[in-house]
Every structure is written in structure tokens, then in C-alpha cells.
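Regression test case RT-17, inverse folding.

Input:
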């Protein structure tokens, strides 16, 4: 194939069909008629000598060649758009910018209130929406601009997705202040034996990596000590406060809860307690955008404990 003979406008059609899975939807997104979009797809097929998309019950599916080139085309188009689009200085006090983020239920409890306070004080006309995106789907959502950034236990290894480490976290046990281990001293931490004698309540949220709590308990052969599983972290404090149950939660969350409720925090054995990194992730196409730089700066100011990437 001869790249010089390729009409680069066709690449926008390729990216749109790949993103939407539909010729009609791609045409609407590009303000093209259905026949014009179909014609463009035909020309693309001729140029690449490949079907590029094949029909399936759920829509058009990319061929192996298309799956390889379409994400790269999309990323390059976004970078080109960011380069060519005029960028004015961002004035948070007067901007009506709309950001979309992805936070888990725990992330929403921990990160959204401070972010909301910062926005109301500094950017009162701006908007922020939390969109439910599974952790594995975050890179694709960033690439398609479904979201602008995400905060969480994320390890993106996709080209075009950038990440900053905000802080490192570990898990602790949390109980009612009246709770005491069945045996041994009641110090600042619990031994593996004391943990094995406790009745546990854990959160099993979907679309996050917090399943590592149960993985830890399986390694310790304590999964049979789980007597209650909740879907959301928000239910755990009340469950532990009014029962003899012990729950395992991130230290940051436990500290927040203990400011409001009569709870006690216990350190777990360091040899078994899982640690994890909390990152801010975004797409490279927004790296130089003043509005996006500003909101990422707020995230670092509020939650960052390590230096940000320049």
C-alpha cells in the first residue's frame, strides 16, 4: 500500500466506525451521510486490501488488521486536534468547563467531597461528573473521551495513557471502640491469631481492585471467617459499629470514618497486609490543555503525597 495515496480524511472515518461499531453512528458523529460514510469505508478497504470490519449480531467487529491500526489512528488524531486547537488561558473563576472522571464507590466517598469543595470555591461555574467505568475499561474510556481522568488502583499500560502516583496505601482493621480480640493483648495491632478468631465483614465491590482484601484472607486461610459480604464500602462502618464484626479497609478510609464515628483502628500483620498504589491517570491528548492541567493540579494538591510528573 502507498501511504501517499491515502486520503487522510478517511482515517477519521476509520476511527469513528471503530469507536461506535456502526457506519450510521460514525456518519452522525462526523456529520456525514450514511452513503458518504459507506463510500469512505469502501475506499479504506480498497486501500488496505482488508475488510477492516465484519458484521456480527452486536454490530461491526474490527478485523485483526483494524484492531492493530485503529487505536493508533485514534490516538494520533486526538494529539493532532490538541495541537491545532487554539487554547486560551484557563480562568477557573469564570469557566463553565465540564470534566468527567471515574471513581469507585470508595473513591467517590474519599475524593469527590474535597474536589467538590475546591471547585465550588475556585471554579463555581464548572461541572464534574463521576462516570461508572470498570477499571479494565479506563484506558479505552480516556481514549474515547468518555472520561477526562480517573483516580484509583490503576496500572495503565496502554500507549497514550499517562499516570502519576498520588500515594501508597495499606489496609487496616476497623471495629467498634468496644471490640477486643478474643485472646492476647489489645495493642495497636492484631496478630494473625487474633485476626483468625474474629468474625469478618468485607466489601466486595465490582469494577475495582479491592478484591485484594479477600485474596489476603485466602492466603491466610481465613476466608471462612467472613460472615458478611457487602457490595459497598459505605455499609461497613455501621455494620462494624453495631456488631462484633471486624472489617478490613484502606487506612485513609478508616481515618476518615473515625473522625465521625466511635470506631477503633488496628494495624494488620505487615507480612500479610496488602499494599497498593493510588494513581491519577489521563490521556496524553490532554497533557497540555490548561483546563485539564488545572484539574489535575487540584487532584495533586488535595491527595498527592509524591511529586507529580512534569
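Golden output:
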Amino acid at each position: 500500500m502507498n501511504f501517499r495515496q491515502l486520503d487522510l480524511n478517511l482515517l477519521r472515518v476509520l476511527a469513528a466506525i471503530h469507536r461506535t461499531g456502526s457506519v450510521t453512528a460514525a456518519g452522525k458523529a462526523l456529520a456525514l451521510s450514511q452513503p458518504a460514510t459507506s463510500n469512505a469505508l469502501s475506499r479504506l478497504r480498497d486501500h488496505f486490501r482488508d475488510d477492516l470490519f465484519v458484521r456480527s449480531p452486536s454490530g461491526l467487529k474490527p478485523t485483526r488488521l483494524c484492531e492493530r491500526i485503529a487505536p493508533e489512528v485514534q490516538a494520533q488524531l486526538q494529539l493532532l486536534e490538541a495541537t491545532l486547537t487554539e487554547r486560551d488561558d484557563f480562568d477557573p473563576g469564570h469557566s463553565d468547563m465540564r470534566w468527567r472522571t471515574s471513581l469507585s464507590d470508595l473513591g467517590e466517598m474519599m475524593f469527590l467531597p474535597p474536589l467538590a469543595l475546591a471547585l465550588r470555591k475556585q471554579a463555581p461555574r464548572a461541572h464534574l461528573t463521576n462516570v461508572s467505568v470498570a477499571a479494565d475499561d479506563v484506558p479505552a474510556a480516556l481514549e474515547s473521551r468518555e472520561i477526562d481522568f480517573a483516580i484509583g488502583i490503576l496500572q495503565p499500560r496502554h500507549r497514550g495513557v499517562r499516570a502519576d502516583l498520588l500515594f501508597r496505601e495499606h489496609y487496616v482493621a476497623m471495629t467498634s471502640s468496644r471490640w477486643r480480640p478474643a485472646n492476647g493483648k489489645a495493642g495497636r495491632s492484631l496478630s494473625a491469631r487474633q485476626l483468625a478468631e474474629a468474625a469478618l465483614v468485607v466489601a466486595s465491590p465490582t469494577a475495582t481492585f479491592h478484591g485484594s482484601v479477600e485474596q489476603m484472607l485466602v492466603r491466610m486461610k481465613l476466608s471462612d471467617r467472613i460472615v458478611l459480604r457487602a457490595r459497598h464500602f459505605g455499609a461497613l462502618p455501621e455494620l462494624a459499629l453495631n456488631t462484633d464484626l471486624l472489617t478490613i479497609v484502606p487506612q485513609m478510609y478508616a481515618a476518615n470514618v473515625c473522625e465521625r464515628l466511635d470506631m477503633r483502628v488496628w494495624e494488620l500483620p505487615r507480612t500479610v497486609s496488602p499494599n497498593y498504589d493510588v494513581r491519577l491517570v489521563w490521556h496524553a491528548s490532554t497533557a497540555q490543555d490548561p483546563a485539564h492541567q488545572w484539574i489535575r493540579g487540584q487532584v495533586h494538591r488535595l491527595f498527592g503525597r509524591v511529586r507529580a510528573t512534569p
